[in-house]
Design brief:
Elements lengths: L2 E4 L16 H6 L9 H6 L12 H4 L11 E17 L2 E21 L6 E12 L2 E9 L6 E5 L5 E5 L4 E25 L2 E23 L12 E28 L2 E8 L2 E17 L4 E17 L2 E8 L12 H5 L6
Antiparallel strand pairs: 1-6, 2-3, 3-4, 4-8, 5-8, 6-7, 8-9, 9-10, 10-11, 10-12, 11-14, 12-13
Length: about 325
């Protein structure tokens, strides 16, 4: 009977999940957000100066005052991509689809005698982590994979298992960052609107790496190193939560020029992470050895600093419902201002 002494000697390239998240990966949770609204996403941060629909709740809450009427909004996120990987001269095409709810919300415009007041509430998914990679092929290259085995006589020797085998690797990552948001915009003067948004973040990112190596040509047939197959499974599950505050302003500089600015106050994101890794080694006689290589749980906080955004919008005209009336007009004693 074989006894497995050291279960794994494997290059780090087989798994990027051997440790907790690096600082770069942690920042990735919030970096390069997709945003909310197809039209707004196509304009990027320039939409901070326009922001005249429900998506203003995300881009610039002061822009909510420009709504002509109340809105109910819903959208679906659908990602379809083709993935083609070449390994050891073998090319494998693959296609994946991800379909999820992207946003759902309500913006309610209150009746006012002058100016504009709008409150909005909704769910928005503005960061997706969906990725997929698969490759497989017969390889003669060494990856320094081998094992120390103790035979029936108590002798321990090292037996490599790293050449002329079929290798397969599958990396599947799926998750998202979303927020329940509530906010509003108020036009405080004919030329100035202010707004604020409160975001309550939550999300999950699940990373899975599965590696397989098979002795399909029976090159390893000498006892005790008569390997048949090897499997390695790594998984990282990250749950995160936090909250943030965004304030915005919309200023009409002239009849044809408007500018928008926003400030995101510092955010703190709590990340709870679980990591597991296990492998299985099979021999020609049917014997298999399974082991838990590593596991752990971590909690850490990611802090993001102030963020300032701005953008102009030219050739704009005031919304029809954002009308200001002078006291003289209200009493019928003078012209409209």
């Amino acid at each position: 009977m074989k006894t497995l002494i050291i279960n794994l000697i494997l290059l780090s390239l087989l798994s990027v999940a051997s440790l907790a998240q690096t600082p770069q990966e942690a920042v990735y949770f919030m970096y390069d957000e997709d945003g909310v609204g197809i039209r707004a996403q196509s304009m990027g941060n320039a939409y901070v100066g326009l922001a005249n629909d429900y998506s203003a709740l995300y881009w610039n809450p002061a822009g909510l005052t420009q709504l002509n009427t109340s809105e109910i909004v819903g959208s679906i996120y659908h990602l379809k991509f083709n993935n083609e990987a070449t390994f050891a001269g073998t090319t494998i095409p693959d296609a994946r689809n991800f379909t999820k709810l992207h946003s759902l919300g309500l913006a309610y415009k209150f009746p006012t005698t002058q100016g504009s007041f709008v409150l909005a509430f909704g769910y928005n998914r503005f960061k997706n982590y969906d990725e997929y990679l698969y490759f497989s092929g017969f390889s003669a290259d060494s990856i320094d994979l081998g094992f120390d085995l103790e035979d029936d006589n108590g002798n321990v020797n090292y037996y490599p298992y790293d050449r002329y085998v079929q290798r397969t690797e599958e990396i599947n990552q799926e998750g998202n960052l979303n927020a329940w948001s509530i906010g509003g915009g108020l036009q405080v003067s004919p030329n100035l609107a202010l707004g604020v948004t409160f975001d309550f973040f939550s999300g999950k990112n699940q990373y899975m790496m599965d590696f397989y190596q098979d002795d399909i040509d029976n090159n390893y047939n000498t006892y005790p190193g008569d390997y048949d197959a090897y499997e390695l499974h790594d998984k990282i599950i990250s749950d995160f939560s936090g909250w943030g505050v965004k304030v915005g302003a919309m200023l009409s500089l002239t009849d044809d020029l408007r500018a928008g600015v926003t400030v995101d106050f510092p955010r703190s994101m709590l990340v709870s992470e679980t990591y597991t890794s296990n492998d299985v080694l099979f021999f020609d006689d049917g014997y298999g050895s399974e082991a838990d290589l590593a596991d752990g749980e971590w909690e850490y906080v990611i802090k993001y600093p102030f963020k300032f955004s701005g953008g102009p919008k030219s050739h704009c005209s005031p919304p029809a419902t954002s009308t200001w009336v002078s006291p003289q007009q209200k009493s019928g004693t003078g012209p409209a201002s």
